[in-house]
Amino acid sequence: MDDAAPTSPRLHRRFPELVESLPHVRLGDVPTPLRKLEGLGTRNRAWLKDDSTFGSGGWGGNKVRKLEWIIPDVLAHKSKQIITVGGIGTNWGLAAALYAKQFGIETAIALVDQPVDDHVRAQLARLQRSGATLHFTHTKLRTVAAAPYLMLRHVRGGRLPYYLPAGGSSPIGALGYVEAGLELAAQVEAGEIPEPAYVVAAVGSGGTVAGLLLGLRLAGLRTGVVAVVVNDTLPLGPKDLRDLARRTETLLRRRGAKLGDIDLDSMELTVTRDYLGPGYGYTTAEGRAAQRVGEEFGIPLDPVYTAKTFAGLLEVEATSRGGDRPIVMLDSFGPRTD
Q1: Is the pTM of this model over 0.85?
Q2: Closest Cα partner for 169 from 75, 102, 236?
Q3: Could you give the domains of the chain?
Q4: Which residue, of 4, 70, 104, 124, is most buried by count of CB atoms within 10 Å of its CB?
């Protein structure tokens, strides 16, 4: 074991050669809690990894884990502005705007239409209060067409803005869930939970699942990943997710990490579109039912991501193999009081 401070990221403690080459800022408290959802499901083996608690600012959840690695990279590039994309109810865009502002970084967001409900209206109002510059580009095609103009418009100090894909799902962003995979392994080692059979997570832009694949592999766990697709506007099949995990592995190696051999192809990955419904942002009957069950267990679920993930958890818990090993849902929804 190295001499890095206990509050430093596990990636730095495991690979101290990354401390200088891959900087990190702490934006939330770790580890996030685990709890067994007693009485849920047919086999009583459902657990929650509660990343809704992660984040010390005005929004929480999985996006903030990504920003712990993204923000230092923005600063290292001497950029003064982030430009990114998302739906008009984007959790990612809100988190980016709020946390980047703490470091003197401006944020601009190209916003694509999605079905509007109370959740989306509330989130759009938060975006409008966040200080971000909002560009309503409406469609994916118009966003792509407007990209050169938007990049030039947001030049600061002679530098182009730092571009981030939807959800912050770059290799740098995926490090947030490499870290979370190592964290889960430490909780297993500490006896907080038996080694899970599966982690069930939403996949909207891919970075969370890709990071988990790599983190669980680095940790040596036999845990598989079930990816519940909630976004039909991006390619999010098994090949896409493994490719992002490999690009994240390549990033770590280029920054100096001595990883040894890693076989990501042998990681069990199931990608399901069974809970997507008509498309991104649309509510589903299964999701609404999951929200009602979630309320009984004290778990607020949003209709776009975690309600559909919870519905997937219930099916995996009932039907999957793995004996009595836990099935863990990653709760990535991080609302905060306005």
Answers
A1: yes
A2: 236
A3: 10-59+170-334 (3.40.50.1100), 62-168 (3.40.50.1100)
A4: 70
